[in-house]
């Protein structure tokens, strides 16, 4: 053990972080398995919080402790603020014309500034509150009917549809089933998460790319073609709408409308940096990224939170008690109630600690050679931050790290917005999630409403401990199997 966990010495006397010995050609790819975040967690226990791997030909550093994450994401943030060029981005981001997969530089800075200002600003998030309220209200009605009929509900599916409906209205300005042609956007986005999150051999052993050994390139091409057709149609429709009513170019319109009304105009006029014109491809890349980021992330967090609550009736009861005190049983939860719901806040933190939606964040790439903590990290290394490991580290969370115990946050200042490196479900630094505000408000509201309006139990008298908690790996990690539940409506009927 002492021998294998020694740092790797390079010829020039520099040492790489410790890590397992790589095999010829594939390096350590074979160690990743079906759930890479879990495999990397076990490897890090052996090799330490800064570990080096070779994935195919790509030097890779895996970061697995809050202290190490702070060094990479805060102290040396600029060096690690880029993203590697990967095959998935070529297809899904129109050759990195979006934000998430784009390398660090003036184009990324411009797009990020533009999106945070026009699409994801606090006032924009606030503007769409009535949409969240209406869609959630109609979902509650559907579940209420199922409850009255004694039916089992696929709550993963229902939450997925709800988030899809909300985001459709925000992004496209219309309901999700109105557009057409048997296009199942939710399924396509799930597929994107899987394809974009997969460790694609073509990215790591480029000369094998033409063989497409995992069939990923073929699938990426197929999915991107279907989505491109859909996006073209949406943009055409919005172009007509903008053209027919130029007065309607208000900043609060849906995302596509805002973008189309600025088509062929500079992204950030008066920018000291290079000027970029908004073209059709930019719009398509940005929309696609927004849908993929928005559809999967919040729904995944909500289904994990409900799963943990079902496994821990004590916590479910505590949350319902808080809701009864703050909201009362004669009405539904409003967004304005959220700041008073402190136990809800702890439940969400605890869920994202044990089930971070993106357990490996989105991979970064180092832009220059650098020495960190005495270890040499070569330029163009891939950096993987394993927040799944960090959430389970007993050195950080004490011996009950594996337990779902929201009370651990009582009297604690740990926040989840990227400043406290024990808990960074939205990443941190320049590349941290720009949709955090929207994501958090959606997760808190939907979870609070479902727990407030219904009592939940597992079907067929299943014991909470028997609930399957298996994961499915992708860019985000949802439940492997949908969560099936029975609901009983619990509000008084004269609710508003
Ligand atoms: C619970 C909900 C969400 C979670 C947990 C989440 C998590 C994350 C994480 C971990 C990253 C990578 C950060 C890093 O590398 O440091 C990220 C990036 C990103 N997220 Fe989110 N996200 C959520 C919701 C959203 C929403 C609603 C949107 C937009 C509509 C969004 C848009 C993005 C984008 C565009 C990036 C890439 C940023 C860049 O590379 O500059 N996210 N998110």
From TrEMBL:
Pfam families on file: p450
InterPro entries: Cyt_P450, Cyt_P450_CS, Cyt_P450_E_grp-I, Cyt_P450_sf
PROSITE patterns found in the cross-reference section: CYTOCHROME_P450
GO cellular component: a single term: membrane
Keywords: Heme, Iron, Membrane, Metal-binding, Monooxygenase, Oxidoreductase, Signal
Main location: membrane
Localization: Membrane
Record bears the keyword Oxidoreductase: yes
Residues where heme binds: 433
SUPFAM superfamilies recorded: Cytochrome P450
Swiss-Prot/TrEMBL cofactor(s): heme
GO molecular function annotations of the record: heme binding; iron ion binding; monooxygenase activity; oxidoreductase activity, acting on paired donors, with incorporation or reduction of molecular oxygen
Family (UniProt): Belongs to the cytochrome P450 family.
Protein name: Cytochrome P450 CYP736A12-like
Gene name for this UniProt entry: LOC110427103
